[in-house]
Design goal:
heterodimer, A: 96 residues, mainly alpha, elongated, B: 179 residues, Rna Polymerase Sigma Factor, Chain: A, Arc Repressor Mutant, subunit A, 2 domains
C-alpha cells in the first residue's frame, strides 16, 4: 500500500463519519439530569469528609479541652517541686 | 447565524454561569453532534460514546468560568473533548475491533465509503493511544497540528512526529493484513 492508497482510504473514512443521530436523541435531558446530580453532590460536603468530621470531632474536642484547662487543675506529680528538699534531707542524713 | 431568539454561544455561556441550566442545555444541543462524532471515531460501544459525551459536557460545565469570551466556544469545547478522549483511550485496553480486519481488508477492493471507514477504524484500533489520537484528529476530524498541540500539551514537532509514525504503523498494519 502506498501513501496515495492510504490517503484515499482516510479521505473516504473522513467523508463517511459514523452515524450518531440515534445516540444524540434527548441527550440534553440526560445531561441535565446528570448535571443536577453533580450539583447535588457539590452542594454539600462530600460524604467521606462528612464521615471523617463526624468521627474526628469528639477527639478534637477532647484535645481542645485538655489544652484549655487552667494549669492549677493539671495533675502534679508527687515529687514535683520537692526535689531540692529531698536532696538536702538525703545529704544531711535526715531521710536515713 | 444566530437571531435574537437564538443567542450566540457567548451569551449562553454567560447565562449558564449565572445558573441558567436551560442555556447550558441549548449549548449542549448545539455542539453535541461534534462531540458524539469525535467519540464515535474512538469507541464502538454506544454507551461508551454517551459516557464520553456526558463527561465532556460536565467538564465543560465545571470549567465554564475559564472560557474566555471572544474565542470560539467550539474550539474550547474541542480541547476538553480531545483530552477526555485521550484519557478514555488510555484507560481502555486496545481492543480488537468488532469487525475482523481481514474482512475489512477484503472489502478494500470494493472501495465503498463504509468499508473504507471500517478498514481504517480496524487499523486505528491497533495503534497506541497517542498514535491513534493524533491520526484520528489530524486525518479524520480535520484538526490542525496546532490545535492538537494546544489540546494535548505536546509540541507541534512532537505532534508531527507522532503523526508520521502513526501513518507508518497504520500502513504496516493494513499491508500485513492485505497481503
Amino acid at each position: 500500500m502506498n501513501d496515495s492508497d492510504l490517503d484515499l482510504l482516510l479521505a473516504r473514512a473522513r467523508d463517511n463519519p459514523p452515524d450518531t443521530s440515534a445516540a444524540e436523541l434527548a441527550f440534553e435531558t440526560r445531561l441535565m439530569a446528570r448535571l443536577r446530580e453533580e450539583r447535588a453532590g457539590d452542594s454539600g460536603t462530600p460524604l467521606v469528609w462528612r464521615l471523617w468530621l463526624w468521627f474526628a470531632a469528639p477527639a478534637a474536642a477532647c484535645v481542645l479541652w485538655a489544652i484549655l484547662q487552667p494549669p492549677d487543675l493539671m495533675p502534679v506529680t508527687p515529687a514535683g517541686g520537692n526535689d531540692d528538699l529531698d536532696l538536702a534531707s538525703y545529704l544531711t542524713g535526715e531521710m536515713l | 447565524m444566530n437571531g435574537p431568539a437564538d443567542p450566540d454561544d457567548e451569551t449562553l455561556v454567560a447565562s449558564a454561569l449565572r445558573g441558567d441550566d436551560q442555556a447550558f442545555a441549548v449549548l449542549a444541543g448545539r455542539h453535541k453532534r461534534k462531540i458524539f462524532g469525535m467519540a464515535a471515531r474512538f469507541f464502538d460501544n454506544p454507551s461508551d460514546r454517551e459516557d464520553l459525551a456526558q463527561e465532556v459536557f460536565i467538564k465543560a460545565w465545571r470549567a465554564l468560568g475559564t472560557y474566555r469570551a471572544g474565542a470560539p466556544f467550539e474550539h474550547w469545547l474541542s480541547r476538553i473533548a480531545i483530552r477526555a478522549c485521550y484519557d478514555a483511550l488510555r484507560k481502555s485496553r486496545r481492543q480488537p475491533p468488532t469487525a475482523p480486519i481481514e474482512a475489512a481488508a477484503a472489502a478494500l477492493s470494493e472501495t465503498t465509503n463504509a468499508s473504507a471507514r471500517d478498514l481504517i477504524h480496524s487499523g486505528l484500533a491497533r495503534l497506541s493511544p497517542p498514535e491513534r489520537l493524533v491520526l484520528t484528529l489530524l486525518e479524520l476530524e480535520g484538526h490542525s497540528v496546532r490545535e492538537i498541540s494546544q489540546a494535548t500539551g505536546w509540541s507541534e514537532a512532537n505532534v508531527k512526529v507522532r503523526a508520521f509514525r502513526a501513518r507508518s504503523a497504520l500502513k504496516h498494519i493494513l499491508e500485513s493484513r492485505h497481503e
